[in-house]
Design a protein that fits this description.
Elements lengths: L3 E12 L2 E12 L3 E5 L6 H8 L6 E7 L2 E2 L5 H7 L3 E4 L11 H12 L4 H14 L16 H13 L5 E5 L7 H18 L2 E5 L3 H7 L2 E6 L2 E5 L1 H5 L4 H6 L4 H7 L2
Parallel strand pairs: 3-8, 3-9, 6-7, 7-8
Antiparallel strand pairs: 1-2, 1-4, 4-5, 9-10
Helix pairs in contact: 3-4, 3-5, 4-5, 6-7
The chain binds adenosine-5'-triphosphate (ATP).
Length: 253
């Protein structure tokens, strides 16, 4: 029996008269890697932002580990969110801070660790994401795209989260770097027993890394394994995977 970590019930989000989600239900299980997919503008980012408490204008219920997030006092929510690691698409590293200071930033803000302990933890996280110690002294502008993603990931992991939210983690990477990044996510997921929720357009990621896929269709989600989604006759789902790439990937396995 899977344990539900995040439960979303009857979610409705709306901008003006435009409804983005309409009665959306989704359970995210502890320990799984869930991919969120869907066409452009289907509401993937808004869903992620709503779970993260960045978009407030919604109705419905969101629970995390059994606690209702809706109407949770801001202080309590802030404390709870320290168990969440977040990596947004536009890496969002501070350009004026070194890599080491970027990674230590959440520690300095939220932990009572000494400067020495923060630095040690930072080096541990650097190693975890496959970067050498010397990278700590570089600045974001001196890094490749793949390295920026790894640094952003190290920072997202620095407070030992139990769930990691990734928004298009492999976008902008060449196929080799993207595959390496997928492998890294898979390794971290296994080693740290992380729950991972990622918005992605990358079929290779979906196939290699995700246990289940939640696809936004008709302002709600259809959830299943890639195989189950491929077998779903809904025209929008069929169209999304119609490039044949998914079938090629499945056949090769
Ligand atoms: N702050 C906002 N104000 C008004 N409309 C918004 C806002 N944020 C998102 N929307 C609208 O909500 C819809 C869903 O947007 P969202 O960014 O979630 O799509 P998406 O599935 O992430 O798309 P993409 O794959 O292109 O990033 C879009 O029609 C978008 O224009």
């Amino acid at each position: 029996m899977m344990e539900t970590l995040i439960s979303i019930r009857q979610l409705v989000t709306q901008f003006g008269t435009q409804r983005v989600h309409d009665g959306l239900n989704l359970d995210i299980y502890r320990g799984e890697v869930l991919g969120i997919v869907g066409g452009s503008g289907s509401g993937k980012s808004v869903l992620l932002r709503t779970i993260l408490g960045l978009d407030h204008a919604y109705s419905g219920e969101i629970h995390f580990s059994g606690q209702a997030l809706t109407h949770m006092p801001a202080d309590d929510f802030a404390r709870l969110k320290r168990d969440w690691g977040v990596m947004f698409q536009r890496g969002a590293l501070f350009s004026s801070l070194s890599v080491g200071d970027n990674i230590q930033f959440p520690l300095r803000e939220f932990s009572a660790l000494s400067a020495e302990e923060c630095r040690e933890l930072m080096y541990v996280r650097l190693e975890m994401v496959g970067l050498e110690r010397a990278v700590a002294d570089k600045f974001p502008a001196q890094l490749s795209g793949g390295m920026v993603k790894r640094v952003a990931l190290a920072r997202a992991l620095v407070l030992d989260p139990i769930v990691l939210f990734l928004d298009e983690p492999t976008s902008g990477l060449d196929p080799v770097s993207a595959e390496e990044f997928d492998q890294l996510i898979g390794t971290l997921h296994r080693n740290l027993k992380l729950t991972v929720v990622m918005v992605t357009h990358d079929l290779d990621s979906l196939f290699s890394t995700c246990d289940r896929i939640a696809m936004l269709v008709d302002k709600q989600v259809v959830v299943g394994t890639l195989r189950q989604l491929l077998a779903n006759p809904h025209p929008q789902i069929q169209q999304y995977f119609s490039g044949g790439r998914a079938r090629v990937l499945l056949r090769g396995n």
